[in-house]
Structure formats: C-alpha cells, structure tokens
Amino acid sequence: HPAHEFCAAAGGGGGGAGGCGGGGDGTRILIKGGTMVNAHRAEEADVYIEDGVVVAVRPNIPVGDDNVKVIDATGKYVMPGGIDPHTHLEMEFMGTVTIDDFYSGHAAALAGGTTMHIDFVIPVNGNLTAGLESYKHKAEKSAMDYGFHMAITKWNDEVSREMEVMVKEHGINSFKFFMAYKGSLMVTDDLLLQGLQKCKSLGALAMVHAENGDAVAEGQQRMIDLGITGPEGHALSRPPVLEGEATSRAIRLAKFVNTPLYVVHVMSTDAMEEIAKAKREGQRVIGEPVVSGLVLDDSWLWDPDFATASKYVMSPPIREAGHNKALQAALSSGILQLVGTDHCTFNSTQKAFGSDDFRKIPNGVNGKP
Ligand SMILES: NC(=O)NCCC(=O)O
Ligand SMILES: [Zn+2]
Predict the structure, then answer these.
(1) Average predicted confidence (pLDDT) for the chain
(2) Ligand 1 pocket test: which of 346, 363, 365 has the largest number of ligand atoms within 8 Å of its C-beta?
(3) Are residues 64 and 124 in the same domain?
C-alpha cells in the first residue's frame, strides 16, 4: 500500500485509516541537537519519541542503547507537524475534479511538514451520508492523519437529522455554508439560518464561505457585457465589498442565533474588519486567512499569459496589494486566529476550460504559492 512509504519514512507504525499511527511497535527515536519550537517558545532541546509518542523534551538526552534511531538535528528547527484546517482533495467542482487526491496531496503536505489536515465533505445531491461514504472511499489511499468538515448545500428534515448523525456517530462537528457559487453550492439566508440553529442545538461549529453570491453573478454579467473575459474579470466581478457584506451578514445572523461562527478564507480587510468589530463586542467569531491571501496580490491576474493568470483564480479572489499586509497584521494580533491553505489544485488543462470566459475557470489555487 502506498501509504506505507510515508509511514516508514516517518518511523511510525502501520497505516490504518486516518494516517500512520503509533501502533505500539517499539519504535524509539531521538532527535538530537536541534532548536525545538513550540507555540510558546523556542529552546535548545532533544526530543525522545517512543511508539509515536513524545515522552521527553530536554537538553542532552543520552542515547542509551543501540535500538534507538538517532536523528541529528544540529542547526535545524524541530517543530510539531502542521495542521491544515482547509483543503479540497479530489473534490468534484465546476465540472471537474481537483488533481491532488488523498495520496498526492498527502505526499506534498508531508514533504512540507504538514502532518494532519481537515478536508470538506461535499454531500451527494444534498445527501450527507452519501457524501461521507464517497470521501471515506477517496481517503482510503491516505498517508497521513485527516479529519472532515462537511458542507451543507440543501435543507430539509433529512439533512437536519443527518447532521445529528454526523456529529454523534461520525465525529464531524463543523459544517460549512457557501454563501457564493450561485446555482451550485450556494445557500440562501433561510437555509443559513436553519443551519446555524441546528449547529447551535448540536454544539457544532458553523463555517461560512462569505461572498454575496447574487451580487457576484451580477458583477460577472457586468464584466462579460463590458467584454472583459480574461482572469482579471474574476477579481473585478467580486470585489472586497461583497466579501465584507456577506461576512457581516453571517456574523449578524450568528449573533441572532447566538452561536459561534468560523469564517473560512478571509481575503480582504473589509471582511477582517467585520470580524474585528464583532470580536471587540464579545462575539465568538474565528477568522481563517489562507496562505495565498497572506502572501500574494492580484497583479498575477493581469498577467497576459492565460496559463499564468488563471493559476491565481480562487474565491474570494486574491486582493490588491495592501490587503495581504493587513491580514498578516491581523493574524499576528489575534484578530485572525489560524491559517489554512485552501489547497484546491487544478492543472493548466482544467484551468483552460475558462480560456474565453473567466466564469468557467475552476476556482482554486495551490496552497503553497
Ligand atoms: N476557494 C476556492 O476558490 N476554491 C475552493 C472552494 C472554496 O473553498 O470556495
Ligand atoms: Zn475552500
């Protein structure tokens, strides 16, 4: 099984569902001489691991016996594995499927030091159980730990009942509502309200993709009417004001229901300021910037080469320079709380579906731009 290559490389046990796992196989590893970094500080320390569990962290741990695998980390940082809270592996979207699956995506993540991620289950025709079955199947080739959030794309009594089953029987306790992608994944305010109330009653976390999907459709038509069909039309059609509006609306509806809210991929100062204001007033709102929004700007979308420009098409769009620095500052001051990648990769052939109409370019970028 391909997962074993990575488990072996990591010195871990056998690869069960959800990753390599410790396995109690007697593996002993000593990482020596590095600078160990945790959330609160960095220090010179060795790390001793038994059966996949860190049992000692202190300077100068003696090697002891020959059965300990010693890794020399002199001059290197030793950090906990990263957790990516936002990915889309093998996701069916905009008429195609993201090219990184639960094996190639895991290989890339592990190579970069990410050891766990949370993907979004997309229901099948609104059915949550069918969606989960499909994602469990996709994840059979996994090589690292993973978990699932779940999108809610329809509303009826069955969906409401299934949400409870997801929380109580499958450990899925975060549900995403797309306020954009009109005609496919988008939900109405009515559905969002029902969903927020259900999340509250289950103690689950509601998440939103915050853009005004109706206004985006209008903005897209405006661009087409103006003859703007290239990737730059993507950013022009869905400006920050539409992200700010939806973020504010979701925050206020969550306040009305009195339930916490997680805003995924915060890409603009407009959205970030809505989150900052709500938090100042004591509301429980979590804001997640993503790597592309923190480090890139929208100039790429104006590249005359379609293959280059289309690589940067995602939603909400990568914004004008300035938003990225403001998001970085908000992250360092705690207004925004964690970073995802929104890893959602399409190759140049897939991106070319929209070579004469930006509306058909599959939305999504590589999480490590
Ligand atoms: N972000 C993006 O453009 N694609 C992935 C789907 C989503 O998160 O909206
Ligand atoms: Zn996403």
Answers:
(1) 93
(2) 363
(3) no
Residue 17 pLDDT exceeds 50: no
Q: How many angstroms separate the alpha carbon of residue 233 from the centre of ligand 1?
A: 17
Residue 73 resides in a domain? yes
Locate tokens 């070579």: which residue? 355
Mean pLDDT of 209-228: 98
Residue minimizing CA distance to atom 4 of ligand 1: 364
ipTM greater than cut 0.85:
yes
With respect to residue 226, please indicate whether it lies within any of the assigned structural domains.
yes
Quick check: 200 and 258 in contact, CB under 8 A?
Answer: yes
Task: Evaluate whether residue 367 is within a structural domain.
Answer: no
Residue 343 Cα to ligand 2 midpoint, Å, equals 7
The residue among 21, 47, 78 that closes a domain is 78
C-alpha to C-alpha distance for 244 and 255, rounded to whole angstroms: 16
pLDDT tens-digit readout, 188-211: 999 999 999 999 999 999 999 999
Helix (H), strand (E) at residue 205: strand 205-209
Furthest-apart CA pair in the chain: how many Å?
74
For tokens 């391909």, name the residue.
2
- Which ligand has the nearest atom to the CA of 345? 1
162 Cα–ligand 2 center, Å: 22
**Domain of 210?**
82-360
Spell out which residues have Cβ within 5 A of ligand 2, the ion: 342
At 24, the pLDDT band (50, 70, 90 cuts) reads low
